[in-house]
């Protein structure tokens, strides 16, 4: 929706018109306006908290509580002020706000309509809770279904995502978290009708606010980690133009290997970091050597071979990288002991370093640079298999081969155009012996 195409604008306009029609019956609904105002204020205020924590859907419990407590048009109105006045991170902001408001109005209207059809307005009491639970479950499914249908449509029309991918898995992924929010909303509604009134209902939000705040802190910390890594990689890319984009691709290939090995998500993420940062030590290598035309002298090669140690010094104080730091230091070691910087053999080489070594060599072979043309993917895989057992860990090579055959690989040109003639010879004929 960055630059909303005409069909996307028509889609948003149609959603806005449908949402307006949902609000028309407000004239005859005669809802308790104080309750509408209270819930709308809670949702609007919560939306700002969510935006600061970069969370989405955080205050769905308030919207779903409104669907269980109010007539459908009044419940839908609860979402409008927060959706229209809340912060928007990307342009165009006007259409985005209108889209968010329309989407929520339609979803809440559907949930309230289903609940009103299957349940009784007075059933939201402690004594009738089991009966209300079934109606509330159906309402949550309707709420989630409308959101995912609309989301898939906007992805197809505004973001140009292929239709076959736009809705794939969207509903199952959304249902579980929205079901939790729906349960919290139902508890709010039950307490709202209890002898303690709306004040008790608001207490349901307190533990959820605490958990959301904790999650927001984690999100900020994770974003700071990503920013740190991005800054380091950008610095390497600026210094060594021949490897621009190489780091990200090595990170992706490392992640593919890790997943094929069946590692848990936390280790997969660490190995992605390892691949992305494996060449960060090039910041300590003179630029003239990284960009030199022609073969390197033995002395120049010794200087460049210091980059794993430079990299380890740079990242060893970054605690969240964990075992990725060992991969930065040892990704040029070889199983037969002929690698550097320490000539480690076999199992002496940390597992993350063995993963990154294969990913690094694979991308080096399948990328075009000024001193070597890209090899076809299958040729590169065969070369890795040829060197498995001497240079590379056979397990890692097999994992990459399986992953590439299953998901494919589409490397981008890293420096020069694919048709550019080589201007300097490769520094070695063995895979992965690049700068």
UniProtKB/TrEMBL annotation:
Determine if NAD is one of this entry's keywords: no
Q: Per its UniProt entry, which superkingdom is the organism in?
A: Bacteria
What does the UniProt keyword field contain? Membrane, Transmembrane, Transmembrane helix
Chain segments carrying region Disordered: 414-435
HD domain residues: 243-365
Q: Which Gene3D superfamilies match?
A: Hypothetical protein af1432
Using the record, list the residue span of the signal peptide; answer none if the entry has no such feature.
none
- Spans traversing the lipid bilayer: 62-86, 98-118, 133-158, 170-192, 198-216
* Coiled-coil intervals: none
Entries under Pfam families matching the protein: HD_5 (PF13487)
Instruction: List, for all copies, the residue spans of the domain called HD-GYP.
Output: 221-416
Name the SMART domains for this protein: HDc
Q: Where is the composition biased (Polar residues)?
A: 426-435
Q: What PANTHER family does the annotation carry? A: CYCLIC DI-GMP PHOSPHODIESTERASE TM_0186-RELATED, LIPOPROTEIN
Q: What is this protein called?
A: HD-GYP domain-containing protein
Please give the organism: Streptomyces nigra
């Amino acid at each position: 929706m960055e630059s909303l195409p005409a069909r996307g604008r028509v889609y948003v306009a149609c959603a806005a018109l449908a949402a307006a029609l949902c609000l028309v019956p407000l004239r005859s609904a005669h809802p308790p306006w104080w309750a509408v105002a209270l819930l709308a204020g809670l949702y609007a205020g919560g939306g700002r908290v969510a935006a600061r924590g970069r969370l989405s859907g955080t205050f769905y419990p308030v919207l779903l509580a409104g669907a269980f407590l109010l007539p459908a048009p009044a419940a839908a109105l609860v979402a409008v002020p927060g959706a229209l006045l809340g912060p928007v991170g990307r342009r165009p902001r006007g259409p985005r706000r209108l889209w968010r408001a329309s989407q929520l109005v339609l979803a809440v209207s559907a949930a309230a309509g289903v609940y009103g059809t299957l349940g009784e307005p007075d059933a939201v009491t402690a004594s009738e809770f089991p009966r209300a639970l079934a109606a509330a479950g159906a309402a949550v499914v309707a709420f989630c279904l409308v959101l995912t249908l609309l989301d898939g449509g906007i992805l197809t029309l505004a973001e140009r995502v292929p239709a076959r991918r736009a809705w794939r898995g969207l509903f199952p992924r959304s249902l579980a978290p929205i079901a939790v929010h729906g349960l919290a909303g139902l508890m709010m509604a039950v307490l709202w009708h209890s002898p303690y009134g709306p004040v008790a209902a608001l207490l349901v939000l307190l533990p959820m606010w605490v958990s959301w705040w904790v999650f927001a802190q984690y999100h900020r910390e994770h974003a700071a980690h990503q920013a740190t890594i991005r800054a380091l990689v950008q610095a390497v890319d600026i210094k060594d133009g021949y490897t621009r984009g190489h780091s990200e691709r090595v990170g992706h290939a490392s992640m593919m290997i890790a997943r094929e090995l069946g590692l848990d998500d936390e280790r997969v993420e660490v190995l992605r970091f390892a691949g992305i940062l494996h060449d960060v030590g090039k910041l300590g290598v003179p630029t003239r050597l990284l960009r030199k035309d022609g073969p390197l002298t033995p002395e120049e090669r010794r200087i460049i071979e210091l980059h794993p140690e430079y990299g380890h010094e740079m990242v060893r104080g970054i605690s969240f990288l964990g075992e990725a730091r060992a991969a930065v230091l040892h990704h040029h070691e070889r199983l037969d002991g002929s690698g550097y910087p320490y000539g480690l053999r076999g199992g002496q080489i940390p597992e993350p370093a063995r993963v990154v070594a294969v990913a690094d060599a694979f991308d080096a072979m399948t990328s075009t640079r000024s001193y070597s043309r890209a090899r076809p993917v299958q040729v590169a895989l065969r070369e890795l298999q040829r060197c498995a057992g001497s240079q590379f860990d056979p397990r890692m090579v097999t994992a990459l081969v399986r992953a590439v055959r299953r998901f494919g690989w589409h490397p981008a040109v890293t420096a020069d155009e694919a048709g550019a003639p080589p201007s300097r010879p490769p520094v070695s004929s063995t895979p992965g012996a690049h700068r």
